[in-house]
From TrEMBL:
Alphabetical UniProt keywords: Transferase
GO terms for MF: protein-N-terminal-alanine acetyltransferase activity
Matching Gene3D superfamilies: 3.40.630.30
UniProt-listed InterPro entries: Acyl_CoA_acyltransferase, GNAT_dom, MshD_Acetyltransferase
Protein name: GNAT family acetyltransferase
Protein's UniProt keywords contain Transferase: yes
Domain named N-acetyltransferase: residues: 6-151
PROSITE patterns, per the entry: GNAT (PS51186)
Origin species: Neobacillus bataviensis LMG 21833
Lineage: Bacteria, Bacillati, Bacillota, Bacilli, Bacillales
Pfam families: Acetyltransf_7
Amino acid sequence: MNQHKITITQYNPKYAEQTVRMWRDSKEQAIRQKEIHSFENHVYFLDHILPEQFQVDLALIEENVVGMAAYNEREISQLYIHIDYQGIGIGQTLLEKIKAQSSGRLTLHTFEINKNAQRFYEKNGFEIIGRGHENEENLPDIQYEWVENKC
């Protein structure tokens, strides 16, 4: 993994287009369907809606966005890694930061079709607490929860 220096930084709108491009590509690959929102709406959501409730962090290699996470102390709203950079620890690095800043309990939703995400979260101590499809894509999803081990 050390061939790339990964920097985790707070979101800056100068990365908006790169972030949205990475997010859309990653999500479309994961759920095998096209993004339902326009690129412009997606940028607006990232710059104006998401930061109202969530801290948004980026994973950068040099000046390239290779991952993003949106979270608060109770919930992970978004966690996407560039399709060319999955499996080298970027998601792990973001998740460890999120856990460290959490209340000791986190929930998230992931699509049932996204087996990679399920493996990732289960490997990291998340357990299934619900299923449904209350999302814009109307796809079956899984709700996960992680509770800090206070041993």
